[in-house]
Input
Amino acid sequence: MTDKTENMIELKGVTKRYEPLTVVDNVTMSVEKGTITVIVGTSGSGKSTLMRMINRLVPVSAGHISVGGRDIMSVPATELRRRIGYAIQGHGLFPHRTVAQNIATVPQLLGWDKDKTGRRVDELLNLFHLDPGTFAGKYPHELSGGQQQRVGVARALAAEPEVLLMDEPFGALDPVIRGKAQDDLLAIQKQFGTTIILVTHDMDEAFHLGHQIAVMSEGKLLQCSTPEKILTEPADPFVQQLTGTSGRALKLMSLTSLKGAMEPVQPGLNHALPETLNLRDALAEMIWQGVGEAAVQDANKVPIGSISLQHLLQLGRKA
Output
């Protein structure tokens, strides 16, 4: 491992004009390999246009974009798009093609043989908890909204792209399904190490998914930082307004791991929490269970520390 982080995507002075309007204005930002960057902003802020310039669905008026160290203008547009996954709100599934045929679209364009394509389709269906025997032959109209969303993301991942672009992919889902879809995406991203850029107007979604958050307004990039810095060091009044002042402490607690805040092991505790929880979820669990102190356990359910309700509340007040 090298000390220097590797950037998968570089944008330098990227601008898009629809005369007389400038919808993306001189944006410079980097996206590290294997991370999720979430672009947020109000309607008309230029966030979707910026993302669509990366796969040349929208031509760049000025500036440069590179993916994997290559200027996107040096790669034929069709080749570039086949190698960058793209998932949109509404999923964009072909209605007269089966689930398997939808997922196989890009592998077939790339000339994969039938066996390799079939194995990849089955692998992705299993990863998204869709039994191939049940779902491969179904058509999009036979699926629920959540199932359609999973197939849409599976199709975007089918050709094993290093980069996945997602434009409001969960916008049409109800809150419960949306939360599950976000968790599925985090699990899949961790497994494949895919570099993801996701556009949303939902700040809670941004904080849940993003390693970094890019805030846009009127075509300009106001701040591109970690979720913690966006909350604690907003670079602009609009950034502070977008993140909201209410619930700021709980948002910060949701970004802090329980393992990093635990106290020494206390013997004889009857309640235990997994170390994978964040502080907000740990607080909610302890209040729900009515306990004042709990052990913190590792993956093997071995106590590695403890946490008290009083300590959690103190951390919340400091956030």
About this structure: The mean pLDDT is 87. The radius of gyration is 22 Å.
